[in-house]
Amino acid sequence: GAVVSQHPSWVICKSGTSVKIECRSLDFQATTMFWYRQFPKQSLMLMATSNEGSKATYEQGVEKDKFLINHASLTLSTLTVTSAHPEDSSFYICSARPYGPLAGGSQETQYFGPGTRLLVL
Amino acid sequence: GENVEQHPSTLSVQEGDSAVIKCTYSDSASNYFPWYKQELGKGPQLIIDIRSNVGEKKDQRIAVTLNKTAKHFSLHITETQPEDSAVYFCAASMDSSYKLIFGSGTRLLVRP
Q1: Which of A93, A108, A109, A111 to mutate to test the interface with B (most CBs of B within 10 A)?
Q2: Which of A87, A110, B81, B83 is an S-S bond match for A95, by CB 3.0 to 4.6 Å?
Q3: Contact assessment for residue A6 and residue A19, using Cβ atoms and an 8 Å cutoff
Q4: CB–CB of A27/A105 below 8 Å?
């Protein structure tokens, strides 16, 4: 249980194009989904918090018009990187917090997806 | 805001030995402390977590201890195995936001 998927797992795009990344909770409903960014050999940096049916909350320094987040349902959140540039190349990871605690977990537990590697040429 | 520091950045141990990774946090309102294991090219995997109302938690070879007064918590791995080699991250969060603030990570290498 507690499986989170991401699609695509990797993507290569040209500078100036937009890329959409999907995050799905496969066997549970997620009250909240989070989007992180991780550069090589670095830690995870929280980009934004996404709640179903409401606008995402962005961390300081993250451009909301560049990183569009849509939380369409209790099992799906999408991150769109608009007008991508080489400096946006990174590993993007989502996590999901269940609507209610799952077996072996707590109300705070976040389950992470496998990540999406984005390379902008 | 919350700040989490993690040490050491790298740790090399012989198979069968114990490994200890330490983290400190700054915000006394933090009350949830998970540990994640991340293998190369993959997302983080939760291995153990602890809430602030508990001082210690154990799951087979893995244990976490929490000292609220000193605001630090530690991960203990006993009888290490080569498959324990990975990057380990500590994190902290509080009920008001559930946002996880991560430490900088520890690269653990278990030598056969």
Answers
A1: A108
A2: A110
A3: no
A4: no
